[in-house]
Amino acid sequence: MSGFAQNTFNGLVSGAFYALLALGLAVIFGMLRVVNFAHGAFYMLGAFGAYVLLTEAGVPFWAALVIMPVGLGLLGMALERAVIHRLTRLDPLYNFLLTFGLTLILQDLVKLRYGVQSSPYATPSLLSGSVNFGLFDFPTYRVFILGFAALLCVAVWWVLTRTRIGMVVRAATERPDLTRAFGIDVGRWVTPVFGFGIGLAGLAGVLAAPMRAVNPLMGADLIIVVFAVVVIGGLGSIFGSVAAGFGIGLVQAWGEAYLSHFPIVSQTIVFVVMAGVLLWRPAGLFGREEAPA
Amino acid sequence: MTSTVDTPADASRPSPPSGLVAVAHVPGWARYALLAVGLLVAVWLPNGLYPAVAVDILCWALFAVAVDLLLGFTGLMSFGHAAFWGTSAYVTGLVAIHAGLPFPLAVLAGALAAAVLAVPIGYLAVKRTGIYFAMVTLAFAQMVYYVANEWRSVTQGENGLQGVPRELFGLDLTDDYYFYYAILPIVLLGLAAAWRIVHSPFGRVLVGIRDNPARARALGYPVHRYKLTAFVLSGFIAGLGGGLFAVGHRFVSLDVLHWTTSGKAVIVVVLGGIGTLWGGVLGAGIVVRLEDWLSFSGFEAIGLVTGGIFVLVVVLFRRGIWGSAAALAHRLAARRR
After folding, report:
1. Count of domains in chain A?
2. Does any domain span residue B148?
3. Does residue A280 belong to any structural domain of this protein?
4. Looking at per-residue confidence, does B155 or A225 come out higher?
5. Which residues in chain A have their CB less than 8 angstroms from residue B302's CB?
6. Which domain holds residue A154?
7. Chain A contact present for B330, CB below 8 A
8. What is the number of other CB atoms lying within 10 angstroms of the CB of residue A235?
9. Which residue spans traverse the membrane (chain A) (predicted)?
10. What does each C-alpha distance from B270 to B20, B199, B248 come to in angstroms?
């Protein structure tokens, strides 16, 4: 039983990363119809940025947790204005290709400067040690990640459903033309939303730094799993992306623990789930049907 | 309310991803002349480049044409074609090592394996269109990558398959120069097959599906089945390229299955020109040559250059080389009339 709780907890923690990344992807996709391939690269930049800030300027984790998301969010906004914006009227595939190219560039820039080896990042002292929940001990840092990510998801949900800005964003996501016809300047919100999504990726990266190896390729394979997550949840659905993120984290952790004779399971189970979802509900668990093709 | 058949099925796709320009006005003699020039270049190539690079160009040309068959002529962007290229590379390598068959038979076995793998992946992927199709194929290809990585007893994991023989009835093909001419007929057959598919009634239906799936469906075509057939054919042709690549390098590494390989195949097609078929061949030549030159000059960050090309082409040059040339020819012809 204690093993089960442990696995569930770890699954939720890795699910928190999927959820944060999927949330950013979903928000960006909703507003811009852009699937941002570079999301994994921005996650990596978040972690790397925190590492560089600490080692070269002595900036602590807590400051990095604010600086990196804001900085990367601004970078994302500049990127949206400079290139992505030009392609949003075309087929979404072009922006997918563009961000794929950006991924290669960003990864290699970091590789060129810092090499490919992994760098350790110390857990902030406030969060080292472990917390005791009745029968089990959990590392404090992981408890913090889980709480922080959950809080963030709830905050985003609150902004989207309870504030005027959220209402505009949701309306623009569902019916951009009609929203414009009501006199709402949809274009004004595109750039900030893109920046926000990128900022979330950067935040996930900073959170990952003390827990995972910081290296230029840390976001490369992760982003593909996140794509599978959003296909499962339904890319159009923000709630679906977050739920699928936590769900896949759990399924992976349980698969790893209880099917440990088959090491391949934990890596491929997400794709098997995706295949099942495509058979059962091609639009994703929480997605809406596309028009028949 | 009534819904007109003419509206594209997916409103988020205002224009199909195509640099396709009507080339119907190019006179017949010009086409034969182009074909003749192309064949001459193909025969001359290993005299002007390192033969090993020329071999790579042939393999990548098949890969690009396979991707364009889907992207340019069916309107499906597969971002996971490394699954077929790489699976065929591994199967070809294993067959060549363990069965000692002539390499064309090993490559055929590899390509067939790729086609078989394309059936379930394609069946699931064609349930989605547009950007979702790209994500789904990408994800399944990553799954194949993980399986190959874990299945070390067969694939040797990160060490790769070493010592893939170039057996052909006892002929000595160790020199890349002669090996190039040994694979050229196979590659030309593959390219001709792609051309035949595009210009068959089946290929016309694919283009119809690309341009307006709803109308194709209304006309009674089983859209999913057509897409799946195109996907499997494309997987087979990509497999031919991957198998030849394995024999050409006498070595198979996990790289052949990685998503960067899938992405590179798409860049090659976009650079050459989507929906032009031969543009992909041209793109393969340029990208392979460029990468060889970069790695030869000791430049480490190849991704910086390929990524840069990707960004530039997508932002400024979406018709690609062949598409731009065709548009230019078209405009010149129109002016003369």
Report:
1. 1
2. yes
3. no
4. A225
5. 108
6. 2-217
7. no
8. 25
9. 12-30, 60-80, 92-110, 141-160, 189-210, 222-251, 258-280
10. 11, 21, 25
Tell whether A30 is covered by a domain. Answer: yes
CA A136 to chain centre: 29
Instruction: Flag whether A125 is in a domain.
Output: yes
Mean pLDDT of all residues belonging to chain B? 83
Residues in B closer than 8 angstroms to A89, CB to CB, are 14
CB contact under 8 A, A83 and B311: yes
State how far the Cα of A54 lies from the Cα of B59, in Å rounded to an integer.
Answer: 46
* pLDDT of residue B9 exceeding 60: no
Please report the ipTM that was assigned to this predicted complex: 0.84
The count of structural domains within chain B is 1
Check CB contact under 8 Å for A227 and B139.
yes
Q: Chain A 224-263, CB below 8 Å of chain B: which residues?
A: 224-225, 227-228, 230-231, 235, 263
Phi and psi for A130 in degrees, rounded to 5? -140, 160
In sign, the C-alpha dihedral spanning A148, A233, A189, A164 is negative
Distance, CA of A167 to CA of A188 (rounded, Å): 14
Residue B67 pLDDT exceeds 90: yes
Question: In the structure, what pLDDT confidence band is assigned to residue B20 with cuts at 50, 70 and 90?
Answer: very low
Tokens, residue B240: 């031919």
User: How far is residue A12's CA from residue A246's CA, in Å, rounded to a whole number?
Assistant: 6
pLDDT of residue B66: 94
Question: Residue B7's pLDDT band (boundaries 50, 70, 90)?
Answer: very low
Query: Is B227 a domain residue?
Result: yes
Residue in A32, A59, A50, A81 with CA at minimum distance from that of residue A197: A32
**In this structure, is residue A289 part of a structural domain?**
no
B15 at interface of A, judged by CB pairs closer than 8 A: yes
Half-sphere exposure of A276 (CA within 13 A, CB side): 8
Percent above pLDDT 70 for chain B: 91
The reply to whether B33 falls in a domain is no
**Do residues A229 and A245 make contact, with C-beta atoms less than 8 angstroms apart?**
yes
Asked if the structure places residue B166 within a domain, the reply is: yes
The answer, yes or no, to whether residue A293 has pLDDT greater than 70, is no
pLDDT in tens, B189-198: 999 999 999 8
The verdict on pTM exceeding 0.90 is: no
Residue A249 has pLDDT above 50, yes or no: yes
B153: contact with A, CB 8 A cutoff:
no
Strand partners, A137: A132
Residue B289, min C-alpha distance to chain A (Å): 19
Which residue segment(s) compose the domain that B77 sits in?
50-258
DSSP A262: -
Q: How far lies B282's CA from each of B241, B273, B276, in Å?
A: 15, 9, 10
For the stretch A183-217, pLDDT in tens is 888 778 888 889 999 999 999 999 998 888 888 88
* Contact list, B307 vs chain A (CB under 8 Å): 100-105, 108
Q: What is the pLDDT of residue B27?
A: 67
| Contact between B13 and A291 using a beta-carbon 8 Å cutoff | no
Q: What is the pLDDT of residues B80-93, one digit of tens each?
A: 999 999 999 999 99
Give the best residue of B131, B228, B258 to mutate against chain A (max A CB count within 10 A).
B131
For A51, the token pair is: 């590492």
Instruction: State both tokens at A269.
Output: 């189970």
DSSP A133: E
**Helix, strand, or coil here: A214?**
strand
